[in-house]
Design brief:
6-stranded mixed β-sheet; 10 helices; alpha/beta; elongated; 3-stranded antiparallel β-sheet; about 325 residues
Length: about 325
Amino acid sequence: MNVELRHLRVVVLVAEAGSVGRAARWLKVSQPSLTAQLKRIEAAFGGELFERSRTGVKPTALGRYTVDRARAILVDVDHLAATVSAMTEVQPSAVRLGGFPTAPMSGIASRLRDHCEIEQVSIEVEWATSVLLQQLESGRLDFALLREFPGFDVRLPPGVDACTIVESETAYVVMATDHPLAIASAHRGEVDLADLADEEWIGEPPDDSGFHVLFRAACEQAGFAPRVEHHSVDTSVQMGFVTSGQGVALVSPTSYRMLSPGLTTRPLAGDPIHRKLMLAWSTDSPRAAMAPDVCQMASHAYAEALAAHARLGHHPQMHVA
């Protein structure tokens, strides 16, 4: 017989009860049945766990060790079960939204909170697409915003579906307003990637989206290898680096809320780097039926972000689905 958790619970209960009869009453089973089960458990452990007497039972040396270890194991198991339950518990009026860092996340969350059926919205920010998909598949998330770059198609696991929110969002180079290239390109309105060959770049750390591979390939096609000297997951850090004139960065319009007056954006000639934005959801989620509504909320949030940048004098190219 293999020892199972239920057997450990029996051993601990018998030790705490001090008698097989009392333990049987607590378990609501007959005393002969519990006595027979305890003998099978002892046989599995290879020795007697309790000394029997007319007044009850007392653990043997092997029994004391077994009871102590069983208690520790059961505490760990109960803690694990409680933690997992808390992590995966879905409140009837809650929605769990995840995604890579992007300004419209808050707009989507706000729209979800305004939904008459939703009382709570939790957000989880994660750069790695693979992690977001795993969280959808495991039920940790109901919905997730994903990005897809050309040549690096997102493979949805079983039980996960998606809709396109933005067909194509163009990447822009952001420079200090007094950068020579920003001034020289003011009339033309765009820059050639090759003109940035001598620049230092700052960007987010490499991830599994394919962006970094695509960026380096585009630079190499333009005749140079980019010098990505600095990395930060914080967009404000990136923009501070660029504002101070230490280099340039490649951004998408929805990667930030607004730019300071000391920064200028320019599209890259030929649009060599762009991405698709999608909303994915777990088809097993209690909120799966809301997917069409949430897709529409996401589209509106991205369109709103686009309009906000246009009002600030930036004109990002983005085709909302």
